[in-house]
Amino acid sequence: MTLTSPSTARSTYAEIAESAGVSKATVSRVLNGDDRVHPDRIASVIEAAEKLGYRPNRAARALSTGRTGLVAVVIDDEPTALSDPFWGVVLAGISRVFLANDLHSLLMVTPLGSPEGAIAHYLEGGEVDGAIFLQVHKDEVINKVHADGLPVVLIGRPIDENSEIPFVDTDNIGGGLQATKYLFDRGCSKVATLTGDLDASAGADRLSGYKKAHEDAGRELDLDLIARANWTFESAKIMTLRLLAKHPDIDGIFAANDIMAIGAIAAIQERGRRVPDDIAVVGFDDSLLSQTHRPGITTVRQDIIGLGAAAAETMIALLQSRTPEIEVLSTEIMIRETA
Amino acid sequence: MTLTSPSTARSTYAEIAESAGVSKATVSRVLNGDDRVHPDRIASVIEAAEKLGYRPNRAARALSTGRTGLVAVVIDDEPTALSDPFWGVVLAGISRVFLANDLHSLLMVTPLGSPEGAIAHYLEGGEVDGAIFLQVHKDEVINKVHADGLPVVLIGRPIDENSEIPFVDTDNIGGGLQATKYLFDRGCSKVATLTGDLDASAGADRLSGYKKAHEDAGRELDLDLIARANWTFESAKIMTLRLLAKHPDIDGIFAANDIMAIGAIAAIQERGRRVPDDIAVVGFDDSLLSQTHRPGITTVRQDIIGLGAAAAETMIALLQSRTPEIEVLSTEIMIRETA
DNA sequence: ACAAATAACGAAATCGGTTTCACGGCTAAT
DNA sequence: ATTAGCCGTGAAACCGATTTCGTTATTTGT
């Protein structure tokens, strides 16, 4: 199997050294910002480098330093995960920050189920300097990688409370609080919630926010108003129908994502009730759905680009041996028509 | 700035060579499948390599061969592009194929507007073996990279008809044909269409399919039924209201994507007409929206994972100096409730 | 004014593979 | 029985940047 390679001419340290009349060592010092070089030489080296249009050879540097400048971005390869527009935006956030820091993101879409397949490639392979994990349920893989000393950052709070792995996350508790409080402020007296998967921290946290809003407002929490759904339209619709049957006086619903909000609305309308007049509905995500749906869905917006950027920043901190701060990004409520 | 690196111990050719009692050169030959080595030695080298848990060092190989094993996947960094779930799935398709071929995708989300910024990084940098472009409008950048000899693959047919750059695409013409023909077969006598941006090949092609369906059916094409929208909910809704005002007898609409189908439905319902009883609507994309929307949207499904995979295969062909076949993937109609 | 410390810089080794080249041992051709 | 040719193999050069180590030149300290 013969492979072609691009034909672009590249210049090297050797050429710069010759052109500037110094040694390769000095070129390296100048180009890496080592200040123990005479100013005159610094100038001539930089001039020579620019004249020759020098571009560093990543492979050579990687071989020499042991660092590749690459960070793996790992997404669990399951059909549902990939079609979520969320990840694309996260990737953009990561990519922007990395590009500005001379790092690159190696995208790995891989089934995390099998510990061997995925891990072998980057950890034992040592092909990357670190790894950012998206869409996490399989802790084993991540813990193994982390234990092996590879810098790891998670997007989304890990379920395991005493995990030491740094992460970035949206303030889902704050978001749930915001949504529920908004419904209270709007005059709702009986607010139910449709939860997501409670094994995912996002699901659990949004519910915590809902609970906290009751606490803050001094309202009693009725566990019967907490309907466990699983992020999907169907589950939300079914649970809402059930809620309405048992509690006809519900006048507000906080759904833990926009799709479920739409499911809830479908159920409400099916029962001949009006949104928001009879029952107000708040979603979560500020997705395209929430914007295009009629009526427009009032929802909690999270800064997804910022989430990716924060993950990248955290990774950079790790690579520089700084202890990163755990970043939790705040949310914003987008008021549309359903509440 | 001090950087840490993973601590994992790695074995090298030198160690394998010593363990197997041969030279590094022979190790290289065996591990690269050069058959001019005595079978006995092949066996002992392989055994030694396995015993030592050998993993190749990508940087060293890249330095030596000039090939990095990395392919850039470039997405134009504009807010709308990123939130389209389409790209995430394409990326998955690419990633799967690459992973199986010992290649990696370097994700670059970057504004293609400025020719300098993005290009400098991979072409002049020579950091990648090739580039796959998504979401293309800026041909200049791509042409420059291509002209410089870097293998390039496009996802989506380039607007420039006589471009020589290999691409993969969904059969948008076929899809438009399929959708329109389905409406005809269903008994619609007056079918309008909402186009996307006609400067994008997907928009133009889906319209061509609509036209071709008329031709095939021997029906006269009424240009007045072609409403130029721009992929968005709002534009579709406005254009549909206009269509309905001028042509109250329209009984079918082919929207070039699902969001516009939803916009059309909103307009139709606002005018007190029913879907699909009065007017049938077909969308395009089989997006999550089309599945969760009520009524469920009949739509044209494209094989997005397959599109990514095809792009990856095409890139691999280029890297091996084979002339790739232009791949155009067929579509499938998903029948739901709106038609 | 002289030993000791410091600054500036180059030669050479190094990272881990790949590849060229030369050499000894055989086989085939003359 | 020579000569030419092919095999299998290892020594060494090479890819391009980094880094150690040592040398010379210049300060600093007393």
Residue stretches of chain A low in confidence (pLDDT < 50, at least 5 long) are 1-7
CATH architecture of the largest domain in chain A: 3-Layer(aba) Sandwich
Mean pLDDT of chain A: 88
CATH C-level label of the largest domain in chain A: Alpha Beta
Oligomer: homodimer
Element pattern of chain A in H and E? HHHHEHHEHEHEEHEHEHEHEHEHEE
Q: What is the total tally of β strands of chain A?
A: 12
Please identify the structural class of chain A as seen in this structure.
Answer: alpha/beta
Estimate what percentage of residues of chain A fall within beta strands: 15-25%
Q: State the domain count of chain A.
A: 3
Q: In CATH, what is the homologous superfamily of the largest domain in chain A?
A: Response regulator
Could you say which overall geometry of chain A the principal axes of the C-alpha atoms support?
elongated
Question: From the alpha-carbon coordinates, what is the Rg of chain A to the nearest angstrom?
Answer: 26 Å
The rounded distance between the terminal residues' Cα atoms of chain A is 62 Å
> Sheet bearing the most strands of chain A, described?
6 strands, parallel
